[in-house]
Design a protein that fits this description.
By secondary structure, the protein is of the alpha/beta class. Helix content is 33%, strand content 25%. 45% of the residues are buried.
């Protein structure tokens, strides 16, 4: 690789993390030591909350930056460089539109806030158990009026076979939002203009870096903007076809820890 890389950002689920949602901490520790020597910043860029990412990388959080909530928050060295919040009327309307959506499958919604995440009491138990894997601080509430927090994002599930129709319907109904597929049954609803690409742009502006100095890994449509922003974009073999089409390189499946292996080669 002839480009001088100064920032490496990676999506988490389906990209950096293995099939069980884990990573090899000893390998990452060694990589980050080499990154430090070469003045390369490592960035976790995810739809997960900042709290979830901070917990996941608890041993490394002072050596890296975080793009959480699909670009809704950017944190570096303990400082918040950017954050985006919905007006309460907006997330209430989003809630109603999700329920009205002809492809909706019930009350499978989560409201991701600055301090905690929230689900309504009618939310199915299996969805609560599922979503706690990504948002461990979930609070069950009686109604949306009980939220005393600033909400960044609404997450919901649709049947996998109708995910694109459900996404398109929401985007057509609510012009101020951007509904984007994050997994094969999951959609994140964020404010229009908020995405991982814009978040990386703000981080690069803070650091004085150009897109050519950025390398990113991603697998799903919520990674599209950061893949097109970066000078180098890499997708694992399990990525959606739309992401592989815009990638500069396709590497092995995420279950083979291919992102870690690539980063090791980058600084070998």
């Amino acid at each position: 690789m002839t480009k001088k890389i100064k920032l490496v950002a990676t999506d988490m689920d389906g990209t950096f993390l293995d099939a069980q949602g884990n990573f090899d901490r000893k390998r990452l520790e060694a990589v980050l030591e080499r990154f430090q020597d070469k003045q390369i910043l490592f960035v976790a860029a995810s739809g997960r909350s900042h709290g979830s990412l901070s917990s996941l990388f608890s041993h490394f959080k002072h050596q890296m930056a975080f793009v959480s909530e699909n670009g809704g928050m950017v944190q570096y060295q303990g400082r918040t460089l950017f954050e985006s919040f919905m007006d309460p009327n907006q997330y209430r309307e989003i809630y109603q539109k999700v329920l009205e959506n002809p492809y909706n499958q019930g009350h499978e919604l989560l409201f991701s806030g600055e301090r905690q995440s929230y689900v309504l009491k009618e939310t199915p138990r299996d969805y609560v158990d599922f979503i706690r894997h990504y948002y461990p601080d979930v609070q069950i509430i009686d109604d949306l009026e009980a939220i005393d927090d600033r909400i960044m994002k609404v997450t919901t599930n649709f049947p996998a076979e109708h995910i694109f129709q459900g996404e398109a319907w929401l985007n057509d109904q609510l012009p101020y939002i951007h509904a984007v597929t994050t997994g094969f049954a999951s959609i994140d609803v964020i404010l229009r203009g908020v995405n991982k690409g814009q978040a990386l742009k703000k981080l690069c502006q803070e650091l004085g870096l150009s897109p050519d100095e950025v390398l990113v890994f991603g697998d799903n449509l919520n990674d599209f903007e950061m893949m097109t922003f970066a000078g180098t974009a890499i997708a694992p073999a399990n990525a959606r076809s739309q992401i592989k089409e815009i990638a500069d390189l396709v590497i092995a499946d995420h279950s083979q820890e291919s992102v870690m292996a690539y980063m090791e080669e980058l600084v070998r």
